[in-house]
Design goal:
The chain is built from six helices and six strands, in the order βαβαβαβαβαβα. By secondary structure, it is α/β, with parallel strands linked by helices. The longest helix has 19 residues, at 22-40. It has a six-stranded parallel β-sheet, with helices on both faces. Helix content is 42%, strand content 19%.
Length: 171
């Protein structure tokens, strides 16, 4: 089994507020290109954490690729209460994260910031590599998780960058 942790920017961090935003099409095209490479290299599990934006778009692409690849999907939520206050449209997306091969949560509810560090360490310790849409120059809270990934021993990290998106757009 080879597992790939998938995470990245949330939609609002990219200035994307509608599902039909043309930027989403470009991002999904890049995800599909990269996912095919991972699958051809032996990845057979993709792990998500249930975040809107990049993770959700990646989940949609992964579900599409399941038709042609022996791919399993998992969502590991940080909290059982994850997404409970989302609006109706986002509840539908949350349901998609729950309609995968494996679903678990780490903690019943949020109690302290230390839980995020523990959750992130668990993800790194229990996946083989990561694929994320993140650039250190465009900093978000993801910087902490990205820093943990970079510091981890023998933990390959592949990033989707804005330059990659420009490349995909010009294809």
């Amino acid at each position: 089994m080879t597992s790939l942790l998938v995470t990245g920017y949330k939609s609002f961090e990219l200035g994307i507020f509608k599902d039909k935003d043309p930027k989403v099409t470009i991002i999904k095209k890049a995800i599909k290109r990269d996912f095919k490479r991972f699958l051809d290299d032996g990845v057979n599990w993709m792990i998500f954490t249930g975040n809107l934006g990049f993770e959700f778009w990646a989940l949609e692409v992964a579900k599409e690729l399941q038709q042609d690849y022996p791919l399993k999907l998992a969502t590991l939520f940080p909290f059982e209460t994850h997404g409970q206050n989302w609006n109706e449209a986002n509840q539908t997306k949350l349901a998609a994260f729950k309609q995968v091969d494996f679903v678990k949560y780490s903690f019943p509810a949020y109690q302290s910031p230390a839980q995020f560090k523990q959750f992130n360490q668990f993800l790194i310790d229990n996946t083989d590599q990561a694929y994320l849409f993140y650039e250190p120059e465009n900093e978000t809270n993801l910087k902490y998780f990205y820093g943990m990934m970079i510091e981890a021993r023998d933990y390959p990290v592949s990033r989707l960058t804005f330059d990659d998106l420009n490349e995909v757009m010009s294809e």
